[in-house]
Amino acid sequence: MIIYDSTLLIVDPQNSFHPGGSLAIPAANDDAKRIALLIDSNSGIDRIVVTLDSHHKLHIAHPYFWVDGETKTKHPTPFSLISSEDVEEGIWVPRDDIDVDGLVDPNIFSLEGNKFDLRNYCIEYTRRLQTSEQQFKLCIWPEHCLIGTPGHNVVPEIMDALDRWSAKTGKSIVWMQKGQNLLTESYSAMCAEVPVSADTTFNHKLQSQFLQSRRVLVCGQALSHCVNFTMRDIVKHWPDGEFGRLCLLTDCTSSVPGFESAGSKFMKDMSEKGVQTAEAGTAF
């Protein structure tokens, strides 16, 4: 049932991804200006969903989760790639003092044996990443969007526009956090790359809310990663023949430097599916 005219989905518009942040995207401030202008100038937006990348320091894709297998004193540098073979051979191993109690549901992510072993988990986790549809190797990122730090906050230009929209319309922003589970990555706001618990499986509730809108416009950071995989998951569960209800705002999102090809492939794939594209100034 269509309840809303247009929903604006803003993926991870946080300080960490903007100039001055730990994982800065050079064009993100310009993207933010256009997103803020879009919010301020269009009364047709009647719902806004904002996702927030939300990490702990000891996340599996952060350096301090890992140590070298020989000295146990070195950590991988940002943008290192760790394969399942690396973990199996002991090149990189998880720290043995990390508390992971209750983070993995064996009914969702099962391992052999009765006792959970973190190293065996990491071998299997990275193997599943490598054999997934996207064929990832685990990338170690600079610490970013750490909960409770300024990097986790929404960039001021967009936050101010969100506040103005709420004050004007009487509606509240729908906030959705992702990435809190230490043991899996959540590029997509809809589902972890490797689900390990109930709260990292596909978010059917959020998907059903998107389906209530005549149009869903998507923007935010980064085109190569979180916008990419969020939208792919939405499309995967969208009704056939209705992909034109989805619109990617091409001048309101940019790729992580060095990953531009991933952003280009994503845009090509969405176009072939029939997803619409538009610049912010022509979206309405």
What does this structure look like?
The protein has 284 residues and is an alpha/beta fold. It contains 7 helices and 10 strands. The chain has a 6-stranded parallel sheet, with helices on both faces. A two-stranded antiparallel ribbon has the order 3-5. Helix 1 (28-41) packs parallel to helix 4. The longest helix is centred in the first third of the chain and has 14 residues, at 28-41. The radius of gyration is 19 Å and the shape is globular. The model has no long low-confidence stretch (mean pLDDT 95).
If you compute it from the alpha carbons, what radius of gyration comes out, rounded to the nearest whole angstrom? 19 Å
The geometry reads as: globular
Helix vs. strand class: alpha/beta
How much helical structure, as a percent, in the residues?
A: 25-40%
What is the β-strand count?
A: 10
List the helices and strands in order: EHEEEHEHEHEHEHEHE
Number of helices: 7
Q: Average pLDDT across residues?
A: 95
> What is the percentage of strand-forming residues?
15-25%
Contiguous low-pLDDT stretches (5 residues minimum) are: none
Sheet of most strands: 6 strands, parallel
Intertermini distance: 22 Å
Q: How is the largest sheet built, in terms of strand order?
A: 7-2-1-8-9-10
